């Protein structure tokens, strides 16, 4: 089953609330073997949304409104750590391929 428009909207909404930079988001998508959220399956979209929801929970972002100053601060802080996290994920992914855990 393919991803629904509602799932894509939910993913992009929570991505914006977290303040996730595009580089890190693309890195997350690459873990599912896609370049765009439109290419996800229904199940993959559910998994990505759950991951983003967990990230929002850890960042303290809920349904309540966040002051603009603190939101900008979170975005800046998140983007500074994006490169480090993306590099860690890439290293884990490459290590898995080297071990033969993934088959292309």
Provide a short characterization of the protein structure:
The protein has 104 residues and is mainly α. It has helices at residues 5-18, 22-30, 42-58, 68-99.
How would you characterize this protein structure?
With 104 residues, the chain is mostly helical. The chain has one domain. Helices cover 69% and strands 0% of the residues. The radius of gyration is 15 Å and the shape is globular.
Pick out its properties.
104 residues, mainly alpha, 4 helices, 69% helix, 0% strand, globular
Would you tell me the structural class of the helices and strands? mainly alpha
Tally the beta strands: 0
Biggest β-sheet strands, sense, barrel: none
The overall number of domains is 1
Question: What general form does the structure show?
Answer: globular
Gyration radius, in Å: 15 Å
Number of helices: 4
Mean pLDDT: 77
Q: Looking at the chains present, what oligomeric state does this protein adopt?
A: single chain
Topology:
Blueprint: H1 5-18, H2 22-30, H3 42-58, H4 68-99
Helix pairs in contact: 1-3, 2-4
